[in-house]
């Protein structure tokens, strides 16, 4: 609206200036033409009066000259005075007359210039713009001159001064009228622009607000439909889109709930028979030394797969609890460094099987208010994941604490991750290499649950890496759940390995 008003002001000002200039020029030209006609008529009359005098005496010519000059004073038509001046460069005439002296002669005489007198001597009517006295000071005026031949007295120049005060008054009045008109038009333009903007932008603002509500998940947002114009069509289209999104979201939400309920129900229903089968399998596994080699191998395979099945059911139950929003924290003061050491100790058989050396270091204060079970589960997932992908290279576990948070960095120098893999590594059922044979099994939910465990504490779990170099997983939790914290460690990919890392005892 501001642009429209400013543009309108500029347009009106330019148009007003052009109109005033045209009016001023037209008024001046009209006044000039009228005054020239009047002056020419007066000069002709004066010339005739001088020509009609036969064998005039000096006194007669002086009387005629005085009459001519005094008669050319008529303020009603703008004629404010005249003067009769003898032309320069003439021989002494037979009859001499004095320049007529009336009240305005001296005033008009002072306005003459050499340029104007030179033009006048040429014979035609000449003119010059000047400033003449008016009622309220000097005003614009004209000096008109012409040559007059006086018998026996020689060549003279007749000049008359005209005031353009009435024309200036007309122009000032016109300018005031134009100014008031422009102001009125600008006010009207501003009002109309505001009204149009309100009529046009209000539906757009409503559409923006409704779209923002849709983005926030408020699918019941609708626009009010008014009229049948394009904006009304926009509102109807928006409402149709919102209704379609709400319907699709409702169906997806219903399907998601059905899937979650199904997974939860199946997991619960399978838990009892799997527990029974595992107990029976455990009895067979415990007596495997009494079996034949073929049956002993079958008992070991059965034991491993039942353990994997039990872990899968546990993961599915845990993720269904997160989906249902039924999780809560049971925090207590915990030494995260001690948890890391216990996890590494429990994973020692897997490290030994994979021929991987694990180093553990503790820096700063590793104590925090966390739920030990969840943090231990996160560390176990990260360490086991690192051991499986280390490909015989070392694994580093570093616990760093500061005043507001504790970070656990698990770094391996194995197959590594690229940017795309790092962006999806916490997705459900996603694996960087699905063809890889995993020695510990897995559901593809471990890292997903680990990230949920970090977030329920108000912390973060991040991953990065370089293919062929290694990967880094960084868990950061605040010392008080959901409190503001400053991360003690920044996420960084591992550098290429230049030498083996030796296991290091933790440092306090």
UniProtKB/TrEMBL annotation:
GO molecular function, one term: protein histidine kinase activity
Keywords: ATP-binding, Kinase, Membrane, Nucleotide-binding, Phosphoprotein, Transferase, Transmembrane, Transmembrane helix, Two-component regulatory system
Reaction(s) catalysed by this chain's protein: ATP + protein L-histidine = ADP + protein N-phospho-L-histidine
Domain Histidine kinase: 265-481
Domain HAMP: start-end pairs: 198-250
Subcellular location: Cell membrane
Major location (coarse): membrane
Transmembrane segments: 177-197
EC number: 2.7.13.3
Key word Transmembrane helix present: yes
InterPro entries assigned to the protein according to its UniProt record, in alphabetical order: BphY/WalK/GraS-like (IPR050351), HAMP_dom (IPR003660), HATPase_C_sf (IPR036890), HATPase_dom (IPR003594), His_kinase_dom (IPR005467), HisK_dim/P_dom (IPR003661), HisK_dim/P_sf (IPR036097), MtrAB_MtrB (IPR047669)
Keyword flag ATP-binding: yes
Stored Pfam families: HAMP, HATPase_c, HisKA
NCBIfam families, per database record: MtrAB_MtrB
Name of the protein described by the UniProt record: Sensor histidine kinase MtrB
Species whose genome carries this gene: Arcanobacterium wilhelmae
